[in-house]
Design a protein that fits this description.
Layout: H1 5-18, E1 26-30, H2 45-51, E2 55-59, E3 85-91, H3 103-113, E4 114-125, H4 127-132, E5 142-143, H5 146-155, E6 158-166, E7 169-176, H6 186-191, E8 194-196, H7 207-219, H8 226-258, E9 261-262, H9 272-286, H10 298-301
Parallel strand pairs: 1-2, 1-3, 3-4, 8-9
Antiparallel strand pairs: 4-7, 5-8, 6-7
């Protein structure tokens, strides 16, 4: 995601709320973050915060830019840092922790690594914002909510200092109150997070390949001989199946909304009518008048 001016401002403003003297504070940065502003001479978060006087450590599985190779789901990797850090910054990192259920272990590690009175700062894609704008729609598997950080304050031993949206990111600052209150209810913890899933079968790996096969099959079998008629009939059957899938998609949408699951593109492709309309637009672009069947199969390929 990278560090831009507005993100750095959010981080530093909240540090100022908690610490008057910022020299020699121990800081953990999740990910080897890069600065995305040309006017800032430092090119990495490590250089930027080190030059401000912090004792800076970054962790990333890629091990680049001086980052330590640590697994954010494995407490053993952080056992030497229990109650060690004054500040932890999470700028576009924990949303990539997988599987989704490991979010609990990840945040428990961050909690354990903070000193009492320490500050946890998070900037991660917001679940409600992607429904409106979708800028971070395919960025990650986990999306965060306002309610999640309220829950962390109520049941995970934090004091919530700020909980806002910047550039469709849920930005929060939490001060750790004590060492004994992190919730043991993993299910409740996860219930405040949204998970983006693709519900199609794993055998559908490439939308480009599927799309090309369907269209080529139609385009090359337009004669009135028995063979071409047979092929077109088979594709007509496939179209009916796709329409049934589109109907199921509407049902699945309701299930996802009830269970805090985010499905990419679900609002765009939520009925067979919308699927067909979308495909007609695509046909006009291709100027292919011979493509007669399989219209709603576009619904399938948009989920790969």
């Amino acid at each position: 995601m990278g560090l831009r001016k507005e993100y750095l401002d959010f981080i530093e403003t909240n540090i100022d709320k908690v610490f008057k003297n910022k020299k020699n504070l121990n800081m953990l940065e999740l990910g080897n973050q890069h600065i995305r502003e040309k006017y800032i001479k430092e090119k990495t978060g490590k250089d930027y915060f080190t030059n401000l006087g912090y004792n800076h450590i970054s962790v990333d599985l890629n091990g680049e830019d001086g980052a330590l190779i640590k697994d954010l789901t494995d407490p053993e990797d952080f056992k030497e840092y229990i109650n060690y850090f004054d500040i932890i910054t999470n700028s576009g990192t924990t949303e990539h922790v997988e599987p989704h259920t490991k979010q609990y272990e990840c945040f428990k590690i961050l909690y354990d690594s903070l000193k009492e009175g320490g500050l946890l700062i998070n900037l991660n894609p917001d679940a409600e914002e992607i429904k409106k704008e979708g800028k971070w729609k395919k960025h990650c598997k986990t999306y965060y909510t306002k309610e999640f950080y309220i829950f962390l304050e109520k049941e995970c031993g934090f004091k919530l200092l700020e909980n806002i949206v910047i550039n469709q990111l849920r930005c929060s600052a939490l001060a750790k109150k004590n060492n004994s209150n992190f919730t043991k209810d993993k299910g409740k913890f996860l219930s405040f997070l949204y998970e983006r899933v693709k519900w199609y079968d794993d055998k559908f790996k490439s939308k480009k390949v599927i799309c090309e096969i369907l269209r080529e099959t139609n385009d090359y079998h337009q004669l009135d001989n028995d063979h071409d008629i047979f092929i077109r009939d088979k594709l007509a059957t496939a179209e009916k199946m796709a329409k049934k899938m589109a109907k199921k998609l509407k049902q699945y949408k309701k299930y996802c909304e009830d269970n805090n699951i985010v499905i990419e593109d679900i609002d765009k492709y939520n009925s067979s009518t919308e699927v067909n309309n979308d495909h007609e637009i695509d046909l006009k672009k291709r100027k292919d008048k011979n493509y007669k069947t399989g219209k709603s199969l576009i619904w399938i390929i948009n989920y790969q």
